Task: structure prediction
Amino acid sequence: MCRYLIGIDRGTTNIKAAVYDLKGNEIKVKSHPCEKVKNPVPGYAEQDMEQMWKDTSDTIKMLWGDGIVPEQIAAVGLSGQGGGMFLIDENGTPIRKGIVSLDTRVAEAARVWKQEGSHQHFLELWKDGNPTVPEALLYWLKEYEYTQYSRTRWVLQCKDWIRYKLTGEVYYETTDASNGFLLDENENYRFDFLNQYGLEEAAKMFPPLLRPWEKAGCITDQAAEETGLCPGTLVAAGGHDVAMVALGAGCTKSGELATVLGTFGLNLLVIDKPHIMLEHFAKIVLSGSKDCYLMMNGGNTGAATEWFIETFCKAEKNKANESAENVFDIMEDEVLKAPHEGRSNIICHPFAEPPFTLEGWEHARFGIFGLTSDTTRPQIIRAFYEGIAIEMAMSLEILNKAVGGIDVMRLIGGGANSRLWGQMFADVCGIPVKILDIKEAGCRGAAFNAGIAAGIYKDHKEVGKLDDPVKCIYYPQKEGGKYMREKKERFQDLGRLLINTWK
Result:
């Protein structure tokens, strides 16, 4: 009987579950929409925790059939969106709605506190930081929902809640803890900041720590009844979705890069233990593989693309709605059928939202430069695509300094299906671009760590030897490289000229 691994990735919009063979091939993928995020008060972003579990169990049940049966599953791994907070009491019952990563209640409260001149000690410590890290949310909870705060036994992240429902065991996990700034250099909890925030008692609310590839428990009888999984099936700790995505893309050791083109454009580079100076240039968290970190930066690719289509490509969008075609296929057909495939002297700064990791570009604005009465629609579309590729290449230059050279880019996410971006990225970055045949890299990374927990793989080195499932590879072209490098230089020159007007 064939043996398989399951990876489950709980996002804010969808829950995905996928089956993998022991070579890492994706056998079956299923998805279930999440409950819509509720905003009962401006700044709040919440989802019902019991509904989260029901949606997850329903997604797992969708995997059975087509020759796949529960008895074949060797282990289950987990991935989940980081940030936010999910609270349970002593009996494992949710205390309130789960707070998801889109939440800004702490930032909203901080604005009021600044105006009032109150909570000065917190504001000085927080310094307009991430509003969804546990220390900030716990401070808010203690101030505004003390009854719920006092009832809290365990603070969890979203995948920890799902794991608890699968196993009945309560754990936190190191990649999520790293993302929340909860770890010291030895990967143990550091709670000194809780004392500074006046949250000394909250230290006992954080469960024991596991690493993503460690065993976290087994499927309970109740979970088996609700999911179809066999009782006793091993469950691994799992990790933060970004860490699992990089691992699922095959990045297991320093210098390996995965670039995600989705809601965000993210360059995910695996590095050895980082020098403190690198933290000025990118966010650094623990990787999904042992003894490595993940250095990441990028831009608001998905939001910018949606805005561009809505603003400049309504004809293509309407045609897609009428014909059930993909709007990107229609846009790219226009470009690929145009003279010179739409190449032009037009420069597009694709910053519908300011980039968050490019130093000096924090206030950048959208702009299209060099239009004339002869400019065509395909040229404008192509210029936007080029702008996205250049922005990501500029971010990648920062990461490249951390490892002294990157050999290949593994491109994943919805944008990896583009017939334009693969070659553009290869040309502007000057490295081969692998388009991976993976629908759900987060699930795949979770499954790999489950395989290590189950003893199927010895370690991440063994996982790294598995073949990448490659659809195609784009190599830098001489003419295309020259064209994109010149575009990038002009893109940056314009930025230097415009910086004062942005401010």
About this structure: Residues 108 and 425 are 38 Å apart (CA to CA).
